[in-house]
Amino acid sequence: MPLAGKGMLLTSMDIDASDEAEFNRWYDREHLLERVAIDGFLEARRYVAHQGSPKYLCLYSTATFDVLDSSAYRTALANPTDWSKKILARFKNMIRAIARITVSRGTGRGAALGIVRLRPAGDTDKLRTALRDQLDPEKLDGILSMHLIESDSALSRPIAVFLWACPRPVRQALIRGCNSTLVSYVWRFLTDPIVATILQICALWLWHMPSAFEKALHDELWHALQHLSFLGSALLFWWSITRGTHRRHRRAVAAVCLFTTSLATGALGALMAISSSPWYSGYAEMGLHGLLPGGLTAAEDQQLAGLIMWIPGGLVHFVAALIFAYTALKQRQSPRHPVRVSRA
After folding, report:
1. Model's pTM, two decimal places?
2. Are both 73 and 165 inside the same structural domain?
3. What is the pLDDT of residues 58-72, one digit of tens each?
4. Are residues 149 and 12 in the same domain?
5. Rg for the chain (alpha carbons), in Å?
6. DSSP string, 318-339
7. Burial 138-160 (b: 16+ CB within 10 A, else e)
8. Is the residue at 336 inside a domain?
9. Which long-range contacts (CB under 8 A, 24 or more apart) does 25-30 make?
């Protein structure tokens, strides 16, 4: 039968076997009761996967989507019990999604549940209509009901903790901004692995040009900007490689980007290592006054830094590229759209 309500909270996680018994006691005897007691929560159902990860899944349906952004729910989140704090700290591979129930059709509830996760890159309305028509339970033997839930990206991510701390008008404005077409487009562009790779390589090379490096060496503001750009471009790069890509053949693209980054990092390190004179006058002056550690000359200090960037630095990206290449080859031998099957 159709799901009750219009909102859904989905949580999924793994737990170590040694903690599993207490985890299930906590879920069944405390956590489920706490959640369904919140005004607007209608029901909760738990599932256990036959195989695969995460092993445990729980679905909470709510009368409206706004219940999942209500003061009652936020208060419950902000005040976990001691038992909850203990168990939550042991969660592994957790997935949390706050979603709208946009399609719900059927005549009953089955004991087995199959879940397919989609990341639409095009017209979501067209995809929603196609799924509604193609997965109509009345046309498919063995399927009692079908439901489509669409995750709210802002409330489902860790930034939701920050949002809940804001006044409601501010929170709603931030959510609208994050969900705007322009912000979504910019984020998708920046988290494309090829774009993120180019940005990281540019940040690395541009800041090691003598003019830019000298500014960072003599001005605290430029120095802070230099390190922020290193950190920001690196976080963007690894996000795009590990999670943020929207391309097909994700692992193969990631392997190419990592290998390219390894070459770019290694090339810069090699140039610094083989240079017989210092690139930066500020370091040369420090060397002349004996201010460099270990009694190294400015050229030797630069060569040592280049070797570290060339070999250990480049090796990290190269090994990661090999891992992604291996998983990409394995992926070609596996089904492209695995279905998760669980039983209540």
Report:
1. 0.51
2. yes
3. 999 999 999 988 888
4. yes
5. 26
6. HHHHHHHHHHHHHHTTS-SS--
7. eeeeeeebbbbbbbbebbbbeeb
8. no
9. 26/83, 26/84, 26/87, 27/56, 27/58, 30/81, 30/83, 30/84
